[in-house]
Structures are given as C-alpha cells and as structure tokens.
Amino acid sequence: MLRERSLRTGLKTRFFGNKIYSFDTIDSTNNCAKAVAGCGATEGTVVIAEQQTLGRGRLGRPWIANPNENLMFSVILRPAIPPDQLNVLPLYVAVAVAQSAEQVTGMEVECKWPNDLMIRGKKFSGILIEGSVKQNKVEYVVIGIGINVNQREFPADLAARATSLRLELNREIDRVELFREILHSLENHYTRISTHGFDSVLPLWLQRTKMLNRPVSVLQQGQTITGVMKGLSPQGGLVVLADGMEKVLVAGDATIVGM
Ligand code: BTN
C-alpha cells in the first residue's frame, strides 16, 4: 500500500510532497486535488490512490488501471503564468516523468504530443491537467499523472497500444522509488522554469519526440489535419506544415502517419 509515511521517507524535495493525501480507493485523485486546492492547499500537495473508480483521461476518456500495481496521483501547483500558457504544462510534466522513468528503468522514453509517454511505440503513461482560472488569473493547476508500472495484462482493445514498465523491462519496478524520482524531477524543472519561463522546457520535450519533421495526423474536434510536424509554439501547440501553410494546433490526438 502506498502510504504517506513511506512515500515521504527519503524524499529529496523542498516542497513537492510536503503534504500527501493517500487513499485506497477514490473517485479520481484529480477531483480530490481540485477540492483541496480550492480550500487553499499549498503548492506541491499530492493526492495519491491505489484505485480510482472514476479515473479520467483527456477528452472525457476513462483512465482504467489495476489497483496496487500502478501509480495514479495528482499534484497541486500555483504557477504565476497567464492562462494562455497552460498548454505548456503537460510538456513540462511529460519531460519530468520521462526522465524519471528512464532513470529508474534505463529504458528510452518517448514523448508524444500533447501528453503521452511511450516506450517502443506503446503508451505507458498519460497526463491530465485541470485547473481554475479566476479573473484571467490562474488560481491553481492540478497535474494528474497515471503510470502503468507493474500491470501485466491489458484489456484486449488496449493491448496493442498500451504497455507497462514491467512488461517492457520484464521485472517488477519499485513504485515508491519511481514516485520519489518523479516528484524530485517535477520540482527541479518547476524551480528552473520559475526563473527561465515555461517555454524553456520545449527543447527538452523536442529532444524526446519522434514526431519532429515526420508526417503527423491530428484528430481535432472530429476533423483530421495531416501535415509535417515542424516544432512547438511558445504556448506548447503543435506546429504543423499542412497544404503549404504552418498551422498551430492546440488540442487533439496526434499520431505519426504510418505508425
Ligand atoms: C490521458 O492519457 O488521457 C491522461 C490520463 C491521466 C490519468 C491520471 S491518473 C491520476 C489522475 N486522476 C485522474 O482521474 N486522472 C489522472
């Protein structure tokens, strides 16, 4: 069981994880984190659960993960950024989780826009950012992170696209070690970003993607846009060259054409 005391022991952070709410079962760690953030919880507060009954992914999809085998947690941030910068946050979180997963497993982790993490072309982690904006100011942000850590089987409809660290590495992963590593990396990048700006994370994300200069297809609000990925906008949008014009896409699902 993931308990506050064991999660905090050996944590090398200054403020990420200073308060950890841990649950056996909860509807969604993002729901709980939003509730405590609304009541004034400090930056770096974590909500973690072994099982979610209403785990959410992006675009209204469910996030389904076996209990006691994976990591599902949310972290509260109060970044001093304008609301139009919020789309950079998933890229920052993706870089931090990718570096940590690589550190713990030794395997190469790839970033897929906007917020998926992949190993050998299969997704093992997703990020869901939610927040509250009041009078055009960011009040709080909740970063929800789901990682398939030690799960050995996936439902048939997911098996071709989803994987876990254990399946790829062929050995059990220490979830607490991975959790601590992620909090440490999240805090380090967050501190750096506070000085250098959120867009300083973009080159780190770009180093980790296979999408750059490849033909990509993006499904956005029922419409498919196909073009060559040329980079990221300062706000974290996907820059695509399509029909001779550069377009900046801010949401949707992107795949490399032919993969
Ligand atoms: C995605 O890939 O679509 C994002 C998945 C995010 C899942 C995590 S699990 C912890 C947190 N609580 C939720 O309800 N969702 C996020």
Describe the structure.
- Helix 3 packs across helix 5.
- The chain has a 7-stranded mixed β-sheet with strand order 1-2-3-7-6-5-4, with helices on both faces.
- The protein folds into 2 domains: 204 residues, BirA Bifunctional Protein, domain 2, CATH 3.30.930.10; 42 residues, SH3 type barrels, CATH 2.30.30.100.
- Helix content is 25%, strand content 32%.
- The chain is built from 6 helices and 12 strands.
- By secondary structure, it is of the alpha+beta class.
- The mean pLDDT is 95.
- The site of biotin (BTN) has 19 residues, from helix 2, strand 3, strand 6 and strand 7.
- Biotin binds next to helix 2, strand 3, strand 6 and strand 7.
Structure summary:
Helices cover 25% and strands 32% of the residues. The protein is of the alpha+beta class and 259 residues long. The protein folds into two domains: 4-207, 2-Layer Sandwich (BirA Bifunctional Protein, domain 2); 215-256, SH3 type barrels, CATH 2.30.30.
Jot down its keywords.
globular; 12 strands; 6 helices; single chain; seven-stranded mixed β-sheet; SH3 type barrels; binds biotin; BirA Bifunctional Protein, domain 2; 259 residues; alpha+beta; five-stranded antiparallel β-sheet
Secondary-structure blueprint:
Blueprint lengths: L3 H5 L11 E7 L2 H10 L7 E7 L18 E7 L11 H17 L4 E3 L3 E4 L2 E13 L2 E11 L17 H5 L5 H22 L5 H5 L8 E6 L2 E10 L5 E5 L2 E5 L3 E4 L3
Parallel strand pairs: 1-2
Antiparallel strand pairs: 2-3, 3-7, 4-5, 5-6, 6-7, 8-9, 8-12, 9-10, 10-11
The site of biotin has 19 residues, from helix 2, strand 3, strand 6 and strand 7.
